[in-house]
Amino acid sequence: MVCANGATLNQLPNEMLYYTTLKSLGVDGMYPRLGRLAFPRRTTVETPHYLAITSRGAVPHISPDMMKAHTNIKGVYIALEDFIEKAPQGVPPVYKYDVSSQLSPLRQFIALSNDSLLLLAPRRIPPIHCPASNTNTAISVLTSVGFRQLESEGYVKAVQTLRPDVVVGMGDMVTGQRAGLKRVEKMGNRTLNWTYEMIVGQSHEESQEQDFSTSALFAPILPINSEQQSHYLDQLQDSRDLIHGLALYEASIISELPPSLLALPRLSLDEPSSPHKLLHEISLGVDIFAIPFIGAATDAGIALDFAFPPSSGGYQTRASLMPLGIDMWSSVHAADLSPLQPGCECYACVKHHRAYVQHLLVAKEMLGWVLLQVHNHCVLDRFFAGVRASITNECFEQDREDFGKFYENDLPEKTGLGPRVRGYQFKSEGPGEPKKNPLAYRTLDDAKERLAEAPIPSSSIDAGELEEKGFAGKV
Question: Distance between CA 341 and CA 189 in Å, rounded?
Answer without folding.
Answer: 49
